[in-house]
Amino acid sequence: MEFAELIKTPRVDGVVLHRPFMPTVEGTLCLTGHHLILSSRQDNTEELWLLHANIDSIEKRFVGSLGTIIVKCKDLRVIQLDIPGMEECLNIANSIEALSTLDSVSLMYPFFYRPLFEVIEDGWQLFVAEESFKDLESMTDEWRLSEVNKDFRVCPSYPSFLTVPKDIDDESLCKAASFRHGGRFPVLSYYHKKNGMVMMRAAQPLIGTNGRRCKEDEKLINATLCAGKRGYIIDTRTIAVAQQAKARGGGFEQEANYPQWRRIHKAIERSNVLQDSLIKLVEACNDQSHSMDRWLSKLEASNWQSNVKEILTTACLAAQCIDREGASVLVHGTEGTDSTLQVTSLAQIILDPTCRTIRGFEALIEREWLQAGHPFQQRCAQSAYSNGKPRSEAPVFLLFLDCVWQILRQFPCSFQFNENLLIMLFEHAYASQFGTFLGNCVAERVKLQLSQKTVSLWSWVNRPQELQRFLNPLYEPNNLVIWPSVAPQSLLLWEGVFLRWNRSTKCLDEACQEMVHIIEYNKELQNKVNSLRRQLAQLETEDGPLQTP
Amino acid sequence: MEHIRTPKVEQVKLLDRFSNKSVTGTLHLTATHLIFVESNSTSAQEIWILHHHIASVEKLSLTTSGCPLLIQCRNFRLVHFVIPRERDCHDIYSSLLRLLRPVSYDELYAFSYNPKQNDQQREEGWQLIDLAAEFERMGVPCDQWQLTDVNREYKVCKTYPRDLYVPITASKPIIVGSSKFRSKGRFPVLTYFYQEKKAAVCRCSQPLSGFSARCLEDEHMLQAISKANHNSRYIYVMDTRPKLNALANRAAGKGYENEDNYSNIRFQFVGIENIHVMRGSLQKLLEVVGTRSLSMTDYLVGLENSGWLRHIKAIMDAAIFLAKAVTVEGASVLVHCSDGWDRTAQVCALGSLLMDPYYRTIKGFMVLIEKDWISFGHKFADRCDQLNIDPKEVSPIFTQFLECVWQLTEQFPQAFEFSEWFLIQIHEHVHSCQFGNFLGNSQRQREDLQLKERTYSLWAHLLNEKQNYLNPVYSPSFAESHPVLEPSTQAYHFKFWRNMYHQYDRSMHPRQSILKHVLTLKDSNRELEGTVQALKTKLQKFGVRTSPLKPQTPPRERSIAPRPQSLILGAPLLSRKEVQQEEDEEVFGEEAREDAPASTGGERTVEGSSATENGYGEVMGSFGSKNEPGVVTLEFGVARMSC
After folding, report:
1. GO:BP terms for this protein (chain B) (predicted)?
2. What is the value of pTM for the model shown?
């Protein structure tokens, strides 16, 4: 298909662009296959380059022959375009609608994007399962890297290589897989070096109404326990929801069959509920009424902060079991691709200082989200402004980022990266020139040949020029477990995302600059003192102080 | 001392408010403080509670472990002791009941507090703030405004200060006539003068207009205020009350200005609620945030139902209205409420702070409080319950003002010379009765009490510790680019002030404080500059030429006040050492303790970050009744990690 077929009017002159907290720009609007561009042809005005994929929905309005298109983006920005001429406006609107809802992945921009920078370090090769397994091997010999899923037959949403207990053979893995939703049998998610405890993740067991059991599954997870030790199964669903799942063939581990495990139920919402929560939250943030009661009640009704609290609490609980209780943990919900990943990845940020570095965080997202089969393409197809009936869209990843931000707020000196990295990841998960978040699982990405045909986000982020933007000036590495507060008074609204386009951040940015200046000046002074001391020491050993006349 | 029956109780348990944690220690009761000293611990936590800070003491019914005593403080601390023997508990309880109800001003801490200063230092402390100099700074007296001696003897208005500024055209008969037409005689006087536009902010109380009464002198007074400003043909009269309240007052012979009787006024209600509503609102707020295992829904619904942030926003909206009228329209504004000492003080002070960068400095903020709150007779004694006279008079009016300022610091981080620690510390001392500044209800009463001779000034104390209260990112040039602050009043900009209302609840706070971190860096920068300078001098002796150092500040001698168990991670508390020196001998006798050792022995945590304090979930009691060692470790307080 040619994009040109969808573009009836490729350019219009005299279009006026309105953006919050920015001066209006008048210029020429151009539509290309992947971008909406507004250029004023003047030197000092910023141009607008908007990816069609970033457009969540549009609204049209007409006053006489002047048309207005309100463009609502997935990054939550809302802009307004005044277009002279009714026909032009209609054509532009139709094109935007068609181009922003292309069905075929291979028509997406990442397949057309050619980087203007030289790829020094290929992000596609950065996080290889064999490499991280080597790290594990240096700490313990209890685990092995299985290739049972090499051609994605045992579990379509898992990667080819999986870390499993050494004593469990591939045959048992296949049997355990048949007992778990989507074939997602229990695999290693995290090894806690300090005490050798582990966190595993899986999907729900398929016990159904008959109470099916699977010896291999039981053996598999028991193999992760030391002699005489017990473990915890954290089911991210309430007991009621888990019970209901039995009727559809799912369910939870029965005590009788897993005597060494204690099950804890939490109440993380399912994805369709989360999408509704996001829509309501963004609606509340965009309410211009200035009424305090209205704001608070809308914020409450959105339930967003409750979701943040519940997810964070569950992650803390998992971390607590591992670090404080000295017990191993298995985490699952229903499919094991959403709430499960939120919990396992957040628990690692709490427990493992490596995950608080930029590389470590990238590796975490690669391992616990991309490789682990979070269906990014489905979940991020639409954002808060979607009009249509939601299919499988849900801000699962955004909630994870929000929780990371909450921890970052409470431990501002413990992270190598800053809020900008989190916001950038949110943007790119929804619309990007890079291929990293395309597809729903490793199998799909292999089929799409993403690593050959697109550029990895990490290739770009890790360039020193870009990295600068994401560094936290306050960072002072520490090797400690960080326990965040989950009291509602301690959890804040993530303004950097939800109020990003509704407030002017000039004053806050300048204050931040000043802080950076203080920190840098401190480093400078320390260097100066050191060099002067060296100089002095040298002089003192060479020859005693000169006689002053 | 005669009220203290049991000065010391051992084996007392202190329960944490939000978790199941508890520590054991010894409780000491002194003439001024209730002190809890943790035993058997390397950290040896100490809690000092000034009797004046205690709002209420409650003895709960006896339990198996002892007798619980619940103490609620005005600085939002809440402590829950369990005392093993009922008798001891009762003794402490009844002593406290007596101690926290002083019958006369003489019993207040300020009259016994002695920071080891001589009379001259004390006097100098009181001279730090000079309101005459402040009016001069504003440009008053001038060709339109003059100082009047009409209230020199407090004859016209008992609750106003002696020195008052009025338009030159307002003669004494007019002033006296106007004062008779205003509640409590509080006639319109100048509180802030915006030199750039010659516009004035004046304050007064409500007129005694009833349904139809009028007063020519009062009308003339407003006319005089209007005429003193050539930039505008009209003045605004802001009634800070909700219209309904003002209407109701008419039946009592009070009310508001009738626009028909006053020429060229623009009358405006702004709808700030009264002291009773505010008291109830704070109570509701504290109840909500004091709930254990509070859910997000209950928190947000509770926050909304308390109305607290709505009230804060209403005050801010009024102040913004005032600042706009003055700075943009160049109009003079007359502000009043009922008596003109609560809402009026809030709006005038906050409005001036928006208009004048001086009030955003440490010294300027003190001046502002001295002017609009202390001298104009905000009834601190009644509102802060200094003598336990009438619970219906108590209200967090001043706390709201401090909170409004904090909300502004959140929007304009570089505009203020001080940090929130300064605001919190002021709040602490408004209730502590340790310094004389806030005692009593009016200037006249303060003079009668001879506060300047018998007590010390808080301002001197705070200026001494100035280092602790600086905002590290403050930029004086911000004042030049933003002389007038224009805050956004979108509801989402108003936040719950956790560091105030949870200042003693450690588990609620971020575990690493950016403020503390950057302050430390700034201190370190100053020291390093000194070191660089010293090294260069040494090098010069070797004949080495060095480039001059860039920004220079002479190495200052700094005395950082002791920072005991931080309120909010290192925020300074009242100087405990001083207090301790005074009382050590009589209370502790031979048991005099040393200060807590800095190290907590081998274990490291990130600023007290702990899994148990946060209560993530039901791990405890996991495997039924079996005593799993893994479960027991959870009882320990702090997440331990050796590395």
Report:
1. phosphatidylinositol dephosphorylation
2. 0.92
